[in-house]
Specification:
With 300 residues, this protein is of the alpha/beta class. It contains 10 helices and 15 strands. The chain has one domain (4-298): Ribonuclease Z/Hydroxyacylglutathione hydrolase-like (Metallo-beta-lactamase, Chain A), CATH 3.60.15. The chain has a 7-stranded mixed β-sheet. It has a 6-stranded mixed β-sheet with strand order 10-11-12-13-14-15.
Length: 300
């Protein structure tokens, strides 16, 4: 059972873990916004960078895309304390995606947080590294007391025939995996639309392109608002220095580029705190304008 006491105990344990330098990042032990590590991915550089001209790749200091070249983006899950709620954004990879990922249970344990204390899980989208972790080693729901929230457009896409017929063969496991997780959590899932609040004080923003229903979120219940962007802004430096460049993981590369530009304008102009799922140093920082481009300042 979730009680005010175990939420307070969880908050105290979280503060202790941050102070001790555990697998969790925050600006300070008292900060209600933190990130938890789920490990990292190991992805072929050719998959992510194939659309980038060689000149741009060299200018950005990116590796060659030859055989065997690998990128290892970190996976940072956002944890947000607001009143009686302990909200987790995304659920991680779980035990069945990549050996290098699925570390969220270890990070929660290091922070002294019982998964049963999580009141809400809000999904940015339904790729494996974001939703497969909703089930544990025994295919039981990993967050036994949580309510789940996902954008209606995202839910509808992964349930649709278009997901099966429109995605390449190597991504068919994504469809099967998303549907099996949806089946497991359906009775406890609320669908929301972009522009609404899945939970009070959390504004959902359309961030389509990476997937058809990908959302970012602005957290208004902090001293200063913060933006959680999921995979819409997924690489430093590429997403910031050249948001117009195609990114191999985006389902719709043109829409993904337009989304990046729109999402980066707001935190740069309004000095919002910024959290990216695959960004370095825990993914927490700020965005600064840099001429016609941007830069990510970790930990700011």
């Amino acid at each position: 059972m979730i009680t005010r006491r175990n939420l307070m105990v969880g908050g105290a344990a979280l503060a202790g873990a941050i102070a001790a330098g555990g697998k969790i990042r925050a600006a300070s032990p008292a900060d209600p916004l933190a990130t938890l590590s789920d490990g990292h991915l190991e992805l072929p550089a050719s998959f992510l960078l194939s659309g980038l001209p060689d000149e741009d790749r060299r200018e950005l200091g990116l590796p060659a895309t030859g055989e065997g070249a690998v990128l290892t983006p970190p996976c940072n899950l956002t944890l947000y304390r607001s009143g009686e709620r302990l909200v987790l954004f995304d659920a991680g990879s779980g035990p069945n995606f990549m050996p290098s990922a699925g570390r969220l249970p270890d990070s929660l344990d290091a922070a002294g947080i019982d998964p049963g204390a999580i009141t809400d899980v809000i999904f940015t989208h339904a790729h494996p590294d974001h939703i497969w972790g909703v089930l544990d080693d025994f295919d039981e729901i990993a967050f036994p007391e949580a309510a789940f929230h996902i954008c209606r457009a995202e839910w509808d896409f992964w349930r649709s025939e278009a997901a099966l017929t429109g995605l390449p063969e190597e991504r068919q496991s994504f469809v099967v995996g998303a549907r099996s997780r949806f089946d497991a959590i359906e009775e406890r899932t609320t669908l929301f639309d972009a522009g609404s609040e899945p939970v009070p004080g959390v504004e959902a923003m359309a961030a389509f392109g990476h997937t058809p229903g990908h959302c970012a979120f602005v957290l208004h219940g902090l001293d200063a608002p913060a933006m959680v962007v999921g995979d819409a802004i997924s690489n430093d430096p590429v997403s910031f220095a050249r948001p117009d460049l195609p990114w191999g993981a985006d389902q719709d590369s043109e829409m993904g580029a337009a989304t990046r530009r729109r999402l980066l304008d707001r935190p740069a102009a309004d000095r919002l705190r910024f959290v990216g799922f695959h960004l370095p140093q825990g993914g927490l920082g700020r965005v600064e304008a840099d001429g016609t481009a941007y830069r990510f300042v970790p930990g700011a």
